[in-house]
């Protein structure tokens, strides 16, 4: 892999946003908090091959509030019938929700700071509509307002009745690095 190719990949990255590289929500492997960690669920988890699994409340896949690490399951017996909720709440893995329009470079900066390398992605409209818990009209969109939204977009609260969000995907550091290395040099 040439240095040139990586340099071009890095330049391409500045034009892209989270939505361009995320894994679509329909392809995200998640578990409900209510699920019991029996032999069948444990097999599904290990068959998925993922190391981190978003956990949602009840049956609402927009209500992702926790993250389960496969390594958290190491000490759990298959016969104890513990719920996902018990394990996820005990380990309290950091979960972030970002706006789908967040620039990739901004997310990369956050990932570089190091305390999390996976984020759930929310539909942009939801963020705008519920900025600071108040409805925000497009016509009021000043530059400052937009910048504030961008900052806030990196720390969205999870789904609630006052602040409903629609999740559209999941993004990890891997998605960004892959994008960096994949970009083709197109001859124009
Ligand atoms: P892992 O450590 O689980 O292999 P990576 O961070 O290496 O995850 O990501 C590999 C790819 O899998 C990325 O495209 C990422 O978006 C996707 N991914 C990660 N976790 C999940 C999940 N729970 N469900 C679906 N896709 C996932």
Characteristics of this structure?
single chain; 188 residues; alpha/beta; 3-stranded mixed sheet; 8 helices; globular; binds adenosine-5'-diphosphate
Describe the protein's architecture and organization.
- It is found in: Cell membrane; Membrane.
- It comes from Caenorhabditis tropicalis.
- GO terms for molecular function: transmembrane transporter activity.
- One of its GO terms (cellular component) is plasma membrane.
- There is one protein chain.
- The chain has 188 residues and is of the alpha/beta class.
- It has 8 helices and 7 strands, in the order H-H-E-E-H-E-E-H-E-H-E-H-H-E-H.
- It has helices spanning 3-13, 18-21, 39-48, 84-91, 104-113, 124-129, 143-153, 173-182, and strands at residues 23-24, 31-32, 52-56, 64-69, 96-99, 118-122, 167-172.
- Strands 1-7-6-5 form a 4-stranded mixed β-sheet. The protein has a 3-stranded mixed β-sheet with strand order 2-3-4, covered by helices on one side.
- A hairpin with a 7-residue loop joins strand 3 and strand 4.
- Helix 1 packs across helix 8 (173-182).
- The protein is globular and about 55 Å long.
- 24% of the residues are buried.
What helical percentage do the residues reach? 25-40%
Shape: globular
Range of strand content: 15-25%
Strands of the widest sheet, in order across it, are 1-7-6-5
How would you classify the helix and strand content by structural class? alpha/beta
- Major β-sheet profile: 4 strands, mixed
Distance between the termini: 21 Å
Number of strands: 7
Poorly predicted ranges (pLDDT <50, ≥5 residues)?
A: 133-140
Overall pLDDT confidence: 82
| SS field, number of helical segments | 8
Bound ligands, each once: adenosine-5'-diphosphate
| SSE order, one letter for each helix or strand | HHEEHEEHEHEHHEH
Give me the Rg, rounded. Answer: 18 Å
């Amino acid at each position: 892999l040439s240095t040139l190719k990586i340099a071009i990949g890095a330049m391409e990255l500045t034009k892209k946003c989270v939505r361009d590289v995320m894994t679509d929500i329909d392809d995200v492997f998640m578990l409900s908090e209510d699920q019991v960690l029996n032999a069948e669920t444990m097999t599904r988890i290990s068959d998925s091959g993922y190391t981190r699994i978003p956990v949602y409340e009840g049956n609402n896949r927009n209500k992702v509030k926790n993250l389960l690490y496969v390594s958290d399951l190491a000490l759990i017996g298959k016969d104890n019938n513990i719920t996902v909720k018990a394990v996820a709440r005990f380990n309290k893995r950091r979960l972030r929700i970002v706006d789908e329009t967040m620039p990739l470079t901004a997310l990369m900066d956050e990932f570089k700071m190091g305390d999390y390398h996976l984020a759930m992605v929310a539909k942009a409209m939801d963020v705008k509509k519920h900025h600071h818990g108040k409805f925000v009209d497009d016509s009021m969109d000043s530059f400052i307002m937009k910048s504030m939204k961008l900052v806030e977009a990196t720390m969205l609260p999870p789904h609630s009745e006052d602040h409903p969000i629609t999740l559209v995907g999941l993004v990890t550091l891997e998605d960004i690095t892959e994008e960096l290395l994949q970009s083709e040099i197109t001859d124009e």
